[in-house]
Automatic annotation (TrEMBL):
NCBIfam families: PPR (TIGR00756). GO terms for molecular function: RNA binding. PANTHER family: PENTATRICOPEPTIDE REPEAT-CONTAINING PROTEIN (PTHR47926:SF347). PPR repeats lie at residues 29-63, 167-201, 270-304. This is Pentatricopeptide repeat-containing protein. It comes from the Eukaryota. Keywords: Membrane, Repeat, Transmembrane, Transmembrane helix.
């Protein structure tokens, strides 16, 4: 049950389960304790996760993996323990880091990875402990991603080439690495190659990764091809993919296509979807359409946030809709109770400046 609470982010129910487990004395059980730790970590309560870990009289690799993964995901700046110390502490307790341990360590933030040179250390650890990259595709994907984030995509490619065929995750990691590092042609070549391989099936993340490259190299035609591929594979209800399509279509100036994606019946729009559509209209100088989308968002029960406010105010400024922009700004402060951030105030100043109403 605690695992389910963690997956859905239900912290209150998770705490109730923890209390009942504590009363019947099961909290010291390895499986139960690790499940509770995972629940707290996934619910954003890393401190509680760490507390449970510290209270365990004896720990196994699974417990260490939850802590390391939780820290890597949380980005908790108050937690100052060196990640290299984790491995040392594990070994002091007679435990050997496994594939999951190393994969979690590879997911650390870019700055930490470069600053502490963990990448080279972890690659050496993989080699010394014979963690086979040829068959451990998840580990290989994490390693490729780490090198790509550190602007060493050529080293990531060597890891990719050393794997036995790979799977969709290793291919996607390599494509994403090329695109993020500006090697768009190489990313497209890999994407074209993956489509003719029977043993590797494209997934949603693959399409999201290659979209920027298709847009930059092939323009609107390339984006339409990816969109068609998504429809063919029935991925067109995925939020991340649809948001990426809305953003790319907007940048290409094809707002009709962006609108079609946004208004697709089975697509559950999130704040990014609305913000992308509003900003797209704003960039094209279509302030009235941006306001219409913003009002529609509110009418459907969605709350505005700083990003959507900035998007619609920018659209008003570009289109000279000062009265409408000020009305939205006032309702933001009074009704939506959103604080007037520097970004929001800058939009208002810019809007007034464009219309010559400053001073």
């Amino acid at each position: 049950m605690s695992k389910v609470c963690g997956e859905v982010g239900d912290l209150n129910s998770g705490k109730l389960i923890h209390g009942k487990i504590f009363k019947i004395g099961f909290v010291l059980d390895f499986i139960v304790a690790i499940s509770l730790m995972s629940m707290y970590s996934k619910c954003g309560e890393f401190g509680e996760c760490l507390k449970l870990f510290d209270e365990m009289p004896e720990r196994n690799v699974g417990a260490w993996n939850v802590i390391i993964s939780g820290y890597a995901d949380s980005g908790d700046l108050n937690f100052d323990k060196d990640m290299s110390d984790f491995v040392k502490d594990m070994q002091i307790e007679g435990l050997k880091p496994d594939v999951i341990t190393v994969s979690s360590l590879l997911s650390l933030r870019d700055g930490d990875m470069v600053k502490r040179n963990y990448g080279r250390e972890l690659r050496g650890f993989i080699v010394r402990n014979e963690l086979a990259l040829g068959s451990e595709f998840h580990l290989g994907s994490c390693l490729i991603d780490m090198y790509s984030r550190c602007n060493k995509v050529d080293v990531g490619r060597r890891v990719f080439d050393s794997m036995k065929g790979g799977n969709v995750y290793t291919w996607t990691a390599m494509i994403n690495g090329y695109v993020k590092n500006g090697s768009l042609e190489e990313g497209l070549v890999l994407f074209q190659e993956i489509q003719v391989r029977d043993e590797v099936e494209l997934n949603k993340a693959s399409l999201v990764s290659v979209l920027p490259a298709c847009s930059a190299v092939s323009g609107l035609i390339g984006v339409k091809q990816i969109h068609g591929n998504a429809i063919k594979k029935e991925f067109n209800d995925d939020v991340s993919l649809c948001n990426a399509l809305i953003g790319i279509y907007s940048k290409c100036g094809s707002l009709d296509h962006a609108k079609q994606v946004c208004e697709h019946g089975s697509f559950h729009r999130d704040p990014i979807s609305w913000s992308s559509m509003i900003s797209g209209y704003g960039l094209q100088g279509k302030g009235e359409e941006a306001i219409f989308v913003y009002n529609k968002m509110l009418h459907l029960g969605n709350k505005s946030d700083m990003i959507t406010i900035v998007g619609v105010l920018s659209a008003c400024g570009r289109s000279g809709l000062v009265y409408e922009g000020l009305r939205i700004y006032k309702s933001t402060i009074t009704e939506c109770r959103i604080k007037a951030t520097v970004e929001i105030c800058a939009c208002v100043v810019n809007m007034l400046g464009r219309s010559g109403q400053l001073g």
